[in-house]
Structure formats: structure tokens, C-alpha cells
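User: two proteins, same treatment. go.

Assistant:
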Amino acid sequence: MAFFITELRETVLWGRDLKSGPLPPLLVSMTFVTGLVDAFSYLVLGHVFVANMTGNVVLLGFALVGAPGFSIVASVTAIASFALGSAAGGRVGARFADHRGRLLSVATFLQATSLAAGVSLAALGGSAPSAGYRYGLIVTLAVAMGIQNATARKLAVPDLTTTVLTLTITGFAADSAVGGGKGSKAGRRLVAVGTMLGGAVVGAAFIVHHEVVLPLLVALLVAAGVSVAAAATWRSNPNWAVSKN
């Protein structure tokens, strides 16, 4: 139990993880963004994800056989835009590979810029956006989440991918006592799963009970906050800032 509490503390508190410095709590914040944005895309833009590309490929398969409610064009647009954002995130990662804090700050600034475009489109498009607004939102949001995913991959903080939970849940179960393991990283993995779930719940609640633009507005504010917080590390060069891959 003490080890579990230590993992929780290192994941959510600034600088407690000696290997990753302040990165874990910042990436937890970006995991919350994923829940918010995918709640918006799935509930407002139709059956399409802008962060969860595994799910999107499955939805594309449904659309290809003519299942009602699914769109080939929407799924392909999301996948292509996500790839474009990932490429942009890769370029940022290569440019700022010498300092992970700078990398996260610049990448989340670019992501926030794309999210800001999404907020504007959502405000103009309303609760039932027309095709033009819908595809504009799919592009801007998928680009933003592609940048986020590429950045998390470059930062390489264990079990904090920010957009994908399949391996996180697998690791939690496989490494548990039931699975024959020692429960390694159970605390961090639970934080990641709970945070994305929380983002999805908050995003869905905003959409169902308030204004559809609110999930994107909160996502924008969180991304901007992470960018500013990461920028505070620019002038220092601690061991955690050195790129691991």
C-alpha cells in the first residue's frame, strides 16, 4: 500500500518523480483533455473520435459495410488529420529533443492554437453543426490530438501516453497480484484511467446539460496552462529534462 501511495504522489505532484520531474502531473492534465475532446467529437460530431484512433479504425470498418450512423469520410478525415498533427508533433519533438520541458511547452502551445480554432468553430456551429463546421472541427481537433500523442510518445513517461489506455489497463491487470506480478505502477495507471474517465464524464455533462462548446473551452484552458507551466522549466537543465529516446 505504501508503494501504491508513493506512485500516486509521484504522478500527481510536481517534481516528485525524480526520473520525470514535473512531466507526470502535466501529462495527467493532458489525459483529461483527451476525455473532454473525445466526448465532444463522439457526441456532437457523430460517431467519430479525434483522439482514439484505434476506435476510429473500428468505426471506419463499421462504415465500410454500411452500418447506420457511421461515416467513411468522417473517419478517414479524422485519421488523416491526426496523422498530420502527429507529423507536426514529431517535428517539434526533433527540434526540442534536448529539453523535454521545452518540448512539452512548445507542443502544447501549438495544440492550444488548434484547440482555439476548434472552440471558435464550435461556438459558431452550435449544438448541431452543419457539415462544413463538422469537418472543420474534426480536422482541427484531430490535428491537436495528433500533436499531443506524438509529444507524449517523445517524452516517454511510462504509462502516461495521454490518449491510449489499452496497454495501461493491460499492464495494470497483468502486473497485479492476480496476474502473477507485484502491482508495479498500479497507482500511476489508475490515475491515467481515472483522469480520462473524468474528462469524458465532465465533457459529456457539459454537452448534455449545458453548452456544447464548454468541453473544448476547458480543454483549451488546460492545454494553455500546461504550456505555461512547462515553460517555467526552460531555464533549468535537470536530469529529467534530457530526452529518453
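Protein 2:
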Amino acid sequence: MNELLITILEEFYDKLAKTTHSIHRDYSFAAIKDKIRVAIGMRRCGKTYFLFQTIKKLLNNGIDRDQILYINFEDDRLLPCDQAKLASLLEAFYTLYPINHDRKCYMFLDEIQNVADWALVVRRFQDSKDLEIYLSGASSKLLSKDLHTALRGRSISLEIWPLSFPEYLSAVSYDLPKTPFTKRTLDQLLEHFAKYLAQGGFPGTTNIDSIDRTQILQEYVELVIIKDIVERYNVENIILLKYLLQTILKNVASHFSASKFTKDIKSQGIRGAKNSILEYLEYLEDAYLIFPVKLYSESVRQVQTNTRKMYAVDPGLVNAYTFSKHASYGHLFENVFYLWLRRSRHKIFYYLTLQDRYEVDFLTQSPDGELHLYQVCWDISETQTLERELRALEIAKKELNIEGTLITPDVFFRHCLS
């Protein structure tokens, strides 16, 4: 085990040295003492390179590299991996560097979900050593039903997403502009934003040919479906699962009805009950592929009986499953704004006015408890469009007595680049 660990560490530092020009991620773990830090997100969204970024900060702050252990549990040399093998690897780290018994160390365990019953070993080392432990993995394996119960409140999670628009601008070497924006700057931003809506933000697909990008993104989805859903939940009706996902991706920022979808698959000759569809929706959300948004209402019955709006983890995935040149800019823009709200840790709903049931895209609650309404519109050049969007927003503001904002691309740029 010692020889294997030496090889793994040598390969890791070789790889780390080659990430000098990797895309900087706008994340950092919370500095909370005695908590295991966990990076959660869809596969290929950049969790591993975020861990690398965190390791580089430690090295830059003077931490000896022999105090740092990094293991990626998707390494075939470690599979299958169980409690005993995990414990042996961690013990081997201290055998290689005996001085570490008497100083603080830092363990980065990547794709930890591939280790059976990993939490017991991690918890033991957390309790018995002077350690900061960092984990990452496929979200479906590390969400509350596994992570929070296994570690019993000893962890704090950080969601990692594909590149945001500011991160994308950095990736394409566009210097972030300073406010206030000039007309020239706004025009340039809009051009880049249209490309971002088409390409999406997965780090591995930035600035590559659209045909190759589509294939790569579809392969990402296939990997998530097989590894994080089918294998974990023993899903047998894979045809239904894939058709459900494709339907949602082709109709992002739109309402989804399980009842209507059940009728649709029946007409398509695809077997599947409504209960199975509802289960599959939970699996897809658990894997960070799609996200349902509920109606905001004090009536539980209203919330349950109204349809949910669906959003995707990345606009690039939407275009990868859309046959037209690109999906609706309006829907993609609304999807990106949803993701911005998620990154900002808002609780998110949509709202229907009591008067005439006009829809407002988002009613959110910020981390400090503040409520706010947002109406998202790609193009307000037509008077009728502007009047329609503002009408719903103004009625909702009066009904709820809270503030609201019309989000156009210009306004969004000021929000996310300020």
C-alpha cells in the first residue's frame, strides 16, 4: 500500500504543477473549525480542480506538501475500495511521513462515494487526528440522506456549479469590465453572453467546436445517468428515464406536469407509471441535472396541485439536446438567472398573482431572509412585451408588499459582474 500511495502522490503533484493556467473558480470553503468540508456537484463541473485550487492556497500559505494527502477514488488501481482499503491508505500516509502524527495535516478525498461505508473511517480519522478533511463527489451519493446522517452534523457542504458567466469571461480571456458600463462594453458583454448561452459553462467544453461539445456534453449526461442514477437506484426503465430528462432539457424554464407526461409516454409507446416518473424526477435532481421550482403560496394544497417549473444545471446541456440551432434565448437566460440565484444561496419559488394569475418568474428569499421578486426578460424592445412583464411584476409587488426587479441582460450584467 505504501508503494502505491507514493506513486499516487507523485502523479498528483505532477498533475497539480500542470494546472497553473486552469480556470479560477469563485468559491471557497467556509472556515469553520472541526467541520469536514464537502464539495458537491454534477460530474465534470470542476470539483476536482476546485480541490486543486484549495491545495495551492495551502501551499502558498507555507503548508509543507508532505502534510497534504490527495486521493482520487475513481483511480482504477484503488477499485473496488472498501473501509479496510481506505483505512490502510490513510494510515500509510502517516507511515510515509511519521512527523505528521505530531502536526496538522490536510486530506483531500476526491469522489469518495466510490468507497463503501467511507463515512465511518473518515469520522474516526477526524476524531483521532489533527486534520482538515475535504471531500468531493457525485452529488447523488453525498446529499443529506447519506452525508448528513453518516457524519452526524460534522460536515459543511459547498455546491460547485459549471462556470458562471464571470468565470466564463475569464476562461475566454475577456477582462471583467468595471462599472458603470459603456455602450461598447454592454455590446461586447451581450455578444459573449449569447455564446455562453449556447456553449454553457462546463470547463472541459469551453472554446471547442460545437459538434464536439455536443458529443462531450451528451457523454457527461450518459455518465451521470449510469453511475449516479441507474447503478445507485437499480433503475430498470432507462428508456423512460432518458426520455424524461430529454423532455425537460428541451423545455427548460417551462412548467412540467407528471400527469401530462404520463399521457405523452403512453402515446409514444413507452411504459411507465406516474409514481415512477416522480421518483425519476427526484433522482435527476439528486444528481444535479435538473431542478424543479415550486409555486410560492401559503396554501399547501396550492403548492401541491400547481405544476413546477424546471431548470437545468447548465445552458450547454440544454442546447446539446435541442435539435434547433439553439434553444430560446429567453428560456436560456431565465435558466442562467436561476443558476445565479442558486449560487447566491437563495430559496427560489415562482409566483402567480391572485389577480388574473399572472406569472412572475422568481420569488426568492435571500440567506438573510429578504424576499424579492424577479421577472426575467431577454428582449423588451417591443412595447407589448415590456407591458406584459411589468404588469405581472407590479401586481405581485402590491399583493405581497415586497420589492421587485425586471431582469434584462444589461441588469443581469450589473448584478453578476459588480
